[in-house]
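The instructor's notes for this session suggest beginning with a concrete chain rather than abstract definitions. Hand out the sequence below and ask the class to guess, before any prediction is shown, which regions might be ordered.
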Amino acid sequence: MIQTDRQEAGGKTRAGRWEPQILAFCCNYCAYAAADLAGSKRMQYSHNVRIIHTPCTGKIEMEHILDAFEKGIDGVLVAGCLEGGCHFLEGNLRARKQTGRIRDILDEIGVGAERLKMVNFSAAMAPTFVERVEEIVETVRALGPSPLRASTQKESAGEP
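After discussion, reveal the predicted structure:
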């Protein structure tokens, strides 16, 4: 499970308040570049978001996202190039369809589609990147911990 120095296992801060754990899958050419630009400009966003650098959002398989939820991640952001501007031609369009299917699965299993979001950026859109990251953090914070988190914690503690 992903932890930060400000969070203990289970997503609790040292003050005891729960904070969501979010993964952001960012494509190399645009979304990751926007995140990097946000960092260069010292723009602040939630400390509990972990960025996973991917070559293209079209290369993210369903299993990667579902595995993150299964391991107790509270929310996932898939961030790619602007539609029509994918460096791999249609990778972000494939990712949009894939994300829609995964959202349906998340609703079916009781996790909730709102925990997964797909967004598109150009490399110069650092402020928009920060806004979208904060939006998913607030959405997931309002939803509370993932329903899969409790079963993940029980399994790691050796409980049936």
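Then share the key points. The chain has one domain: 22-156. Strands lie at 22-27, 49-54, 75-81, 116-121.
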